[in-house]
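Form 7-S
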Amino acid sequence: MEKINLIKQYNIVTPNYSLDDKEISFDIYISPNQQVCIIAKLDNNYICWCSITAINDYDTNSSIFQYILNLNVKTISNEFSALGEKYNEVKNWHHLIFSKRAYQNENRFFSPVNSCFFMDGKFFASEINTFYKQERSKCDYRLIDDTYVSILEKYKTILYKANQHYSYYHEVKPIIKILEDESYLKLSQVFEIRQLYLECIQKSNDLYNRYMTEIR
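Output:
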């Protein structure tokens, strides 16, 4: 199983603090061509697993989940080091999180896909596939004709309006919220649409960061 783990000897990092009490959560990134990047996170800084497989490879994805839960010795890295040159690409894929919550006196992983708790690898793999199908369907219906592409272009024009005060962030915050809610557009099969959406998201992040810098 370790052969598909992108954490290798050359990209291991040494944590600056103890990770012994950290619960694993799963960050799942899904590409338009049905690849899935599975990252086992210990916190915002460190990970103990990173792999890229096919969404429909149920057996492998199920085995990854069970393997990670049974790890006695964790090899530590971070997302940037593990993904290397694929970091920016993967971080622009559609995103899903499985984290633990209390359920019937124990901590279990919660899936926002079907609002249920689980500790089973097969269910883990199935939820990833279900998430892709549901989100891809939303994307296809949203883009059923060219109307929404025109709307995205108008959003981009508004977001990129020149020479704005840092407080302009508040004016466009409703647009940013809409864009965040429609992140399934990252699954569009049309590169130009994905690129247009990502440009809007990037500018939204820039406006937010500028605003936060100014008010600190």
